[in-house]
Amino acid sequence: MSFARWSLVATLLVVGIPAQAQVEVVGPVEYGIFETSKDDFQPGERVLSRRDQPIRQTIEVPAKLGSKFGLRYRLSGKREGDTPLTLLYLTPGVVTPDGKRHDKFEVVQSLVPDAETDVMAFEFTEVHEVVPGEWRLMVFQGDRKLAERTFQVRSR
């Protein structure tokens, strides 16, 4: 290794490089079905929810339109511009109207420092999304897994 290159490496080790903040989950991760008073949903219909929408803790999810399930959690160390969260939804195989099978959906979500809680949820709003089987939801920051929960979507 040349002296110039070695000098650069040594300088970086001594001075350091500003690190991206790593967020951490604080407290328990809530999981289950987000409760709503509405029972009969039509395709494409969503109900606006509040930030503090109650969650009934369960891993069993009814395979029907309107079922919304997932995680709610608190993160510490969030700073605007840091590495975003990646929300990974592993499905039992959702086939969209174009005939394509989706074994996973991935959403990149910027950190919102002022948000008290963060939510990762899936809501069945279209008939083709309602697929019984194992659904796994995972939250990552970069390659670090922050939270994970597996749900069983069951037909009535």
Q: What does this molecule look like?
A:
With 156 residues, the chain is mainly beta. The protein has a single domain, classed as Immunoglobulin-like. The protein is 8% helix and 46% strand. It has one helix at 3-15, and strands at 24-34, 55-56, 60-62, 68-76, 85-95, 101-109, 118-123, 133-141, 144-154. It has a five-stranded mixed β-sheet, with no helix packed on it. The protein has a four-stranded antiparallel β-sheet with strand order 2-1-4-7, with no helix packed on it. A hairpin with a 5-residue loop joins β5 and β6. The N and C termini lie far apart (67 Å).
Q: Termini separation (Å)?
A: 67 Å
Q: In which range does the helix fraction lie?
A: under 10%
Mean pLDDT: 84
CATH topology: Immunoglobulin-like
Low-confidence spans: pLDDT under 50, at least 5 residues?
A: 2-18
Domain tally = 1
Structural class: mainly beta
Please give the CATH architecture.
Answer: Sandwich
- Report Rg: 20 Å
Spell the H/E element sequence: HEEEEEEEEE
Number of strands: 9
Strand numbers in spatial order across the main sheet: 3-9-8-5-6
Q: Globular, elongated, flat, extended or rod-shaped: what is the shape?
A: globular
CATH class: Mainly Beta
Share of β-strand residues: over 45%
* Count of discrete alpha- or pi-helical segments spanning 4 or more residues: 1
**Main sheet?**
5 strands, mixed
